[in-house]
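Protocol step 4 of 6: record predicted structures for both targets in the notebook before any analysis. Target 1:
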Amino acid sequence: ENMPYHVVLRLMEALNNKGKSLKGAKILILGVAYKKDIEDMRESPSLKLIGLLKQKGADVSYNDPYIPQIQLSGEVLKSVELSKDVLSSVDCILLATDHSSYNLEEIASCSKLLFDARGATRKLKFDNIVRLGE
């Protein structure tokens, strides 16, 4: 399962293109469930992703309407609310699980950088969206 590593590399590039380094960057992960619209977390690549980003010095938070908190190597992270303030304050929003409840247009319009690891934003025309595999 190399997907998380690939995502982290591409995310670093996307941030570098904006003159930001991953170290110290605020990253908000959308979706830690294994699949959209469920609360199952087993095998979720998002956990690996959060671990990798933290190792590289990023300041990571997450939102998931189905999963109020996660435990990651002894640390408890709680799902943050998706307010405009939160969306606009982070350096990058990483869409990891595309839950139906996410209004991607609104999220993109508030964000500095939206990294879409799911290909869920293909219909949206925003300059600040970077899609995995494009």
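Target 2:
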Amino acid sequence: MILNQFFFYLCLKEYFKNKISDNKLLFIISCIIFISPSSRSNMIWPESAMFGLLFFLISVYFYLKFVNSKKNSYVYYNIFFLALSAYLRPSYSLFAIYFYLIFFINL
């Protein structure tokens, strides 16, 4: 669960790279994950949803890195972690369509 909060913080930090200079505010916002009842129950009884969310947050992080730097290596990392998250929770596979369209337009 801590890794989910950490990668959510990294995603916020990457998204607000030039907009917000105070990282403490982003850290407090990333702690909102702990308020969610489903995340609190999954800390006690682990389920595939937390691992799927972790891999999805990692794929979003690499997507944001790609948007900011346009390096092709981030595309491959995004696809890999999105495939892992879709394997654990098939509902995340819908985001593959969105990422595919963005990558197709940019590449």
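Step 5 preliminary note on target 2. The chain has a mean pLDDT of 88. The longest helix spans residues 48-69.
Proceed to step 6 after PI sign-off.
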